[in-house]
Q: What sequence folds into this?
């Protein structure tokens, strides 16, 4: 069965600090997809990124970057020069692409609460 | 383009009453998902559909919960009778298809059962 672990329950930083959110996953499939979602205080879940299991290139989007390492089954998320508006709950998720009992399901981690103080 | 639309945004009801939550997925998306979020259990997948057909309802907690998708642009989640432990935020999400595609979430319905 697939599993996503976000070991950091809460992180608190001061504005302009860099912060990394950890995500470790478990799956038996060779083809799978990893996602990050942001849930700001308004409550809606916002899609941030999707990576497939064959693409281990790191990705950067503005102040956001993602580090995917199959060797350690990790898909970590770094925010550079954090801002108060980054305060939210961040979820990592996994989807298996091969038809089976978990096909089509997103398995979410428990989430990391990030608080950025001014 | 409009995102996933859910109604109502807030619902307060008394125990024993029937509750119906509604969802309109993004146009062109073939897959629709219903989730429940609570502090205790986090995000739970209740049921999902592909091409209007229920694929997996193993997450539906009890027979009191039912979901339908009569067409590609509308789905309902019904709780009958409702209980205080059903209080949660219920999200609907849609995606282009199953597996490889990201899901886009609606704003959620905050349900309070007193």
A:
């Amino acid at each position: 069965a697939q599993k996503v672990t976000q070991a950091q329950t809460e992180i608190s930083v001061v504005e302009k600090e860099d912060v990394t959110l950890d995500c470790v996953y478990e799956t038996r499939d060779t083809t799978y997809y990893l996602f990050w979602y942001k849930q700001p205080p308004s409550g809606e879940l916002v899609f941030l990124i999707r990576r497939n299991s064959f693409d281990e290139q790191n990705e950067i989007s503005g102040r956001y970057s993602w580090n995917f390492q199959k060797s350690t089954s990790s898909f970590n998320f770094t925010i550079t020069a954090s801002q108060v508006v980054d305060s939210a709950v961040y979820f990592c998720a996994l989807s298996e692409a091969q038809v089976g009992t978990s096909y089509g399901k997103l398995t979410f981690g428990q989430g990391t609460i990030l608080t950025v103080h001014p | 383009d409009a995102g996933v639309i859910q109604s109502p945004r807030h619902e307060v009801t008394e125990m024993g009453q029937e509750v119906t939550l509604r969802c309109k997925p993004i146009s062109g998306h073939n897959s629709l998902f219903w989730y429940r979020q609570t502090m205790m259990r986090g995000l739970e997948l209740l049921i999902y559909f592909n091409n209007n057909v229920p694929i997996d309802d193993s997450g539906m907690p009890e027979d009191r919960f039912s979901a339908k998708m009569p067409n590609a642009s509308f789905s309902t989640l019904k709780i009958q009778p409702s209980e205080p432990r059903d209080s949660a935020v219920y999200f609907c999400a849609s995606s282009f298809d199953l597996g490889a595609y990201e899901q886009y979430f609606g704003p959620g319905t905050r349900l309070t059962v007193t």
